[in-house]
Structure formats: structure tokens, C-alpha cells
Amino acid sequence: MRKLFISLLVVLVSAGASAQQRYVDAAELTVIGQPVPTDRPFARVDTSVYKFNDATIDRYANYSTGLAVLFTTDSRNIKARWETSGANSGSNMAAIGQKGLDLYIKKDGEWVFAGVGSPAMNKAPYDRHESTLVAHMEPGVKECLLYLPLFDKVDNLEIGVDQEAFIRPLANPFRHKIVVKGSSITHGAAASRPGMTYAARFGRDNGFYCINLGFSGKSKLQKEYALLLADIEDVDAFIFDTFSNPSAEDIYGRFDEFVDIVRAAHPDVPMIFLQTERRETRNFNTDREAFEAAKQKAAAEKVRQRMKTDRHIYFITSEDFLGDEHIATADGTHPTDLGFTYMLESISPKIKKILKKYGVR
Amino acid sequence: MRKLFISLLVVLVSAGASAQQRYVDAAELTVIGQPVPTDRPFARVDTSVYKFNDATIDRYANYSTGLAVLFTTDSRNIKARWETSGANSGSNMAAIGQKGLDLYIKKDGEWVFAGVGSPAMNKAPYDRHESTLVAHMEPGVKECLLYLPLFDKVDNLEIGVDQEAFIRPLANPFRHKIVVKGSSITHGAAASRPGMTYAARFGRDNGFYCINLGFSGKSKLQKEYALLLADIEDVDAFIFDTFSNPSAEDIYGRFDEFVDIVRAAHPDVPMIFLQTERRETRNFNTDREAFEAAKQKAAAEKVRQRMKTDRHIYFITSEDFLGDEHIATADGTHPTDLGFTYMLESISPKIKKILKKYGVR
After folding, report:
1. Residues of chain A scoring pLDDT < 50
2. Between chains, do A113 and B326 touch, taking CB under 8 Å as contact?
3. B18-53+65-169, CATH topology level
4. What is the pTM of this model?
């Protein structure tokens, strides 16, 4: 009788959230988001191949920004163990966006938010994390999309499933290939979760494969980026948030060479340039007002000039990127999830209209 | 000639952002947001007077959540120096919201975002902060509203203005008194900036004086809160986010006594109860689904029952608090600025309609 009770107890416990888990290396599942294939499973860009001559850009290239792991499982609980590399946080960032994980599960054809991987906080070791992403799910097979940290390097990542459950790679379900090159706005400095950048949302909402090449504060039309973009195969479109970081002088001096390099490698690919947002730091600061206005003027001039000779270049103006209530940024510059919502309401229909002309839908 | 050049240089430098500043103690300006007057300048509630028998609630009572400093100045640059007490961060919080400052300046009758006080990050001493809130403003007198940290105690705060500028207390410009008692949702766990909680936005948007008594995870209809609410003078309305933290059992067991105490002290004051949001943690987790559904059922039952005998009690349902795209929370539970926007779109017109009946407009 007592043995029966104990057996029953074991069965009950193993059916719950505290069931024994087994962990698999996420590198053995499907990893998407890398512009050029590399052996480094969780780095965006292989810095042994691409040289940027800038320690910060090298560091960002090794971040897992925009990367996601795809798998299918019949587990009722999904956990994760991962290590990040100790990157500093910005005052506008929450740890879930910076070092955390963001899980979506397919439901009625849509990717629906399922849970976050919450990083270790406030106690050492700060960069070794373990978190339950979702528990107590209904039985059945789930298709899972797990976004990786936006502002740190992932040294390793394991997915935990119930002992008896299967977990297998899921083929990339996203169509086409759209490369989004940009600043901290693209990088997602103030995105609440890794899957909430505008690039990730545009991809998820439309089924497009979007690659995030946002480099916070460092997206100044450098030639090194253009050489990387030139190497990416089968690109269907480029979206450029390339006017947020450079000064007006940088834009006048570098824009043409940047476009020349990308265009030589991708002769007919649409290049969609976003005007930089009208920053809220301009509201009262006359210095910022002058600096930002000069940037916007330079951007508009250079792109419109180029459009005269290149019919695959497009320009999207930014008046409505941050709404009109001054509530869309974390710090005057970086859009929050609300800012990205306003931005997507503005750019999504315009970008989709352009893409349609190229059969990208 | 050389002397003239140096004099000119001094004049030029002192006219710019790097002008010499003088600092004044913010406690000597106008501080708003305290429900009951206290000598502690930057604490919400005086814990020598109000006892909660819970170390976490005591800690939160000493936070500066919802407090703001009001002043007028003709300075062209505004800086701040402040110290916080070393409170831990949550994985859903950014430092600007947690320990930072959020400045608004009156422009054409509206409070317009002007800049943030960015906390010290990543290097000791972590809790001693110095930041330029806004620089290079046009000459002229500005009315300023500065929100204090949401999730830490402020040990001291000084405002820096240009050496020759004046800075004076500004009388509280907000009308009426609306007390918002609630959970981490009211507390603003995932608000990007201190002025972005729904209570602060509702107040700023409508000119109402809103007092934030959000206590993260600890808002379970405890009697001790009711005793505090009973002591607040001249309250025009209560808004209650009191069903997010308690279990269904807590709600059944505590609701009536909680209302009895508040009602005895405020016989005719409208008490507006918000149903708790439908959390995104329910999307796939069957345990969470059952727990949350039971809470919502208990809340609806208890409030509707009480409404039969108390015509100053109101209930606002929550179907649309988080929109329908599963993008409004930082972690499945806590609304981001986007979540607060959806929530305000839902509750603002309903609350204003109720308040109008009481002459609060």
C-alpha cells in the first residue's frame, strides 16, 4: 500500500511543472538571424571574417541580437539555461530585453507570446541564468520561436523539456530575406523583450525573414558594414536606419560610397532608407534641434539625389515615427514598445507596398 | 588683447551647457504625491506613523513612487544630483524608471517631455547619480515638473541651475485629489520613465492630482492600507487596482472589511474598482489560467454585490486593458508604456464619465 502511494506520488509530481527536465544544446536546433553563415552558433557576425576596426562594433557583432532558435516539442514545460558574457546595461534597458529570452508558440497560425526567460538579477553569478519560460501547457506538439538577448553575447544556451518529451529543430518558417541595417533604434535598446524590436515584429507580423543588423550608436555608414551587406546572399530587400547615428557631415561624406558598394553586389535589390526619427531631445534643447535638423536635411538630400539615378532606392519620411504626444521614447531618443508600435503603423504599409512590387509578400 | 580673448572665452563658456551650476535642495521646492503630509521629503508614506507588519511594504512606503518636484526657473540648463538607497532592480525594469528622473516643461498649456535624469550605471558608487536633464534651452521662465524614481528610496536630491538663474517652488497645478491604490501595475514596474505610469499619465493628461499608492506584489486588500486611505483628507475619488495581487480566497475574505474601513471615513467618495487585466501568462499555462480566472470571478462577484447597496462604487472590466496582439507586457504580467496606453484608452473615458458626476473635471 505504501509503495503504491509512493509510486502514485512520483507519477503525479512528474506530470507537473516540477517534472524532471532534460536539456539540449540550442545550437543543435535551428538558429536563424545570421546574415552570413558562421560556426559561431549565437553570434550575428563572425568577427574572424569581418573586421570593423572598432572594439565596440566587434563586441556588438558577437551579440545575439535578432537571432532566434526554432524548435518543435511535445513538452508541457519549457525551461532554459544560458550564460551571457557580462555586458553592461544601459539605463534605458530592462534585463529581459538585454540578456533575456522571449518565447512565442504558434497558435491558429499566429506566433503568440508564451513567456520570457528572466535573467539572474542582483546576485552573483550575474550572467548564469536559469528560467522557466512556460509551464503547465496542454498536451500536444508546439512550434516554438525563441528570441535571444539583444545586448549581450550568449556563450551557451540549453533548452529544457520534460524528460519523456521530444524536441527537434523546426525549419525556418519565414519567407524571403530582409536585412535591416541600423542604429540603437534597430538594435532595440529600449525594447522590453528580445522579440519586440521593430524588425522582429515586422517579420513576425508578416511572415518575413528579417535579419537585425542594428549597432547601437555605431551605425555611421561605415564602409565595413557595406562590405558585409555585399556578402549576404539572396537578399530580397534592405531596410536602412542609417541616419540616426552619423552627423550631417558623415552623411554627406559617406553615403554614396556606402550605396555604391551595396549596389554593386545587389544590382536590383530595393534599398529602403528610413529618415531618422524626430528625437524628443529636440523639444527644448536648441543645440540638439540644430544638430538633428542638419542630419535630417543631409539624409533627405542624399537619398533623393540618388533616387534620380537608381529606381530601386526608396525614402520613407519620419514625421509620425514617435506619434505626437511625446510619450514614445525611454529617454528622448530610444523608442519603447509604444514607439515601435507608432513606427510600425507608419512604415509597415509603406514598406509592404514597395516589397509587393518585387514579389515579396 | 589676450586678456580680452580670455574674458570673451569665459563669457562664451558660461553661456553654454557647461555653465557653472548652483544646486538647491529639492525638498525646499514643492513636492507633491504624498497622501498624508510628512516630514520625510521624498517618501510616499511615513512608516513611523503607518505600520504594515511587512518589511517589503515598509520599504516600498519609503520609495518616491509617484512623487514629483515642481519648480519654476529661468535657467537654460537643468541638472540634478541625487542618491538612491541601493534597491535591487527587477528584470522587467530599466534604470531610468527605477532610479531615474523624468522632467516635463509646460509648453502651450501642456506638460511636454524635456529630458531624463539617467542613473549611474555599471560603476561604483552605483547609487550616487548626476545627470543633465536638459541643456541649451531658449531664455525665459519655465514651469517644471520632475518625477522621482519609481522603485527606490531617494536619500537626497538637488536641482542644478545656471549660476545666475533663479529657481523657486511652483504651486501644485493639478486639480482635485485622486488616490490610485494598486499593485505593481500601478507602481509602474515596467514603465520606461517615472512619469509614464498610468496614474501619472492620467493626471498629466487631465490636470488631475493623482497619488500613486502602487505596492508591487503586495496589494492584497490588507486592512493596513485601508487605514491609511481612511486618513487621507479631501479625496475626490479612489481608483483601485486591488485585484491583481490577491488570490480568489484573499478577495472573498478581505474585500468587505477593506471597503468598510475606507467607506466609513469617506462616505460619498466614488470608489472605482478596476478588474485585473487578463494576463498574458495565461496564454498557454493552464495553471495560471485557472488561478487568474478564479481571481477575476471573485473580484467581479464581490464588487457587483457591494454595488447593490453602495451607489458610489463602480467596476471597470478589463477585456481590452492589454489590446489583442499580445504585445503589451514586458513579461506576461507588467504593462509596458504600450500596455499603459491601451489601458488608458480603455479606462480614461470611463473614469472621467464617473468623475464628472461628482464635479471632478
Report:
1. 1, 5-16
2. yes
3. Jelly Rolls (2.60.120)
4. 0.94
